[in-house]
């Protein structure tokens, strides 16, 4: 079964229809990149996956389990889904290491030693082994976003959702974040990524989904969707 399965999704804000009858499936290990013009509903679709947005009709299943808008259930589903936003959203008063440890201890109930070990391993993985004791505001935007990715990974998510993760970065810092995402994709992580970085889409995506006019206009391999004659 698909890890994420969305059927006939309708999402409105007031009278404005943002998603109209959208179907999307994401298999385990698949990297799906959502592209399309601003306002097409990419971010909304992404946020529906973990129940950050409530849909008006349709069904969403995560690992076969239907999403219901009930706090306990949503928390349980969200604990299995990692999300990275455009703004890095680190806790400014906590050192990098504590940013990475906190939810591991508080939500997953890991021991501090275990959480620290996992945090240190992930900092190495995102190329920041020497930043454990730094505060977020001492880091570049690219470094902060890599910490945010590490923090999400620390929870051992089954899927990672990225909502324009490089859009707030200075151009020279975009590559280091995409590189981390690329490695993650190569390592088999299931990912759904909203981005305008076509080079990333071309190289990292198993499937590119083009959104327009409240729905999916086209989807296929990067070659099929991006290399029009
Ligand atoms: P994209 O990510 O493709 O740029 P969004 O999903 O952010 O598109 O937005 C889709 C549409 O929904 C836009 O027209 C946007 O103005 C509208 N929208 C998004 N969030 C809200 C909200 N909280 N309230 C009202 N309208 C919203
Ligand atoms: P490559 O060796 O693949 O041509 P680089 O060495 O320039 O690419 O960057 C390393 C990886 O980071 C690349 O595989 C690429 O996917 C990603 N990357 C770096 N910068 C960008 C960018 N501006 N847009 C998309 N992907 C990028």
TrEMBL record:
SUPFAM superfamilies assigned to the protein according to its UniProt record, in alphabetical order: P-loop containing nucleoside triphosphate hydrolases
Catalytic activity: a polar amino acid(out) + ATP + H2O = a polar amino acid(in) + ADP + phosphate + H(+)
GO cellular component: plasma membrane
GO molecular function, one term: ATP hydrolysis activity
Domain ABC transporter as annotated: residue spans: 4-229
InterPro entries noted in UniProt: AAA+_ATPase (IPR003593), ABC_ATPase_HisP-typ (IPR030679), ABC_transporter-like_ATP-bd (IPR003439), ABC_transporter-like_CS (IPR017871), MetN_ABC_transporter-like (IPR050086), P-loop_NTPase (IPR027417)
Record family assignment: Belongs to the ABC transporter superfamily.
Protein name: ABC-type polar-amino-acid transporter
Species in which this protein is naturally found: Nocardioides mesophilus
């Amino acid at each position: 079964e698909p890890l994420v399965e969305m059927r006939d999704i309708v999402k409105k804000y007031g009278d404005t229809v943002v998603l109209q009858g959208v179907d999307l499936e994401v298999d385990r290990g698949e990297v799906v990149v959502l592209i399309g013009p601003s306002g097409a509903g990419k971010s909304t679709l992404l946020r529906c996956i973990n129940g950050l947005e409530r849909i008006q009709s349709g069904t969403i299943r995560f690992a076969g389990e239907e999403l219901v808008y009930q706090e306990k259930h949503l928390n349980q589903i969200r604990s299995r889904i990692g999300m990275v936003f455009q703004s890095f959203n680190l806790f400014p008063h906590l050192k990098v290491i504590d940013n990475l440890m906190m939810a591991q201890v508080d939500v997953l109930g890991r021991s501090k030693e275990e959480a620290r070990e996992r945090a240190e391993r992930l900092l190495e993985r995102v190329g920041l082994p020497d930043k454990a004791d730094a505060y977020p505001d001492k880091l570049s935007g690219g470094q902060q976003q890599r910490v945010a990715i590490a923090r999400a990974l620390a929870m051992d998510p089954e899927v990672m959702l990225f909502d324009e993760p490089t859009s707030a970065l200075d151009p020279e810092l975009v590559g280091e974040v995409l590189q981390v995402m690329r490695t993650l994709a190569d390592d088999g992580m299931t990912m759904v990524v909203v981005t305008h970085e076509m080079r990333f889409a071309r190289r990292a995506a198993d499937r590119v989904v083009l959104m327009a006019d409240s729905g999916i206009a086209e989807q296929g391999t990067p070659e099929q969707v991006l290399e029009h004659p």
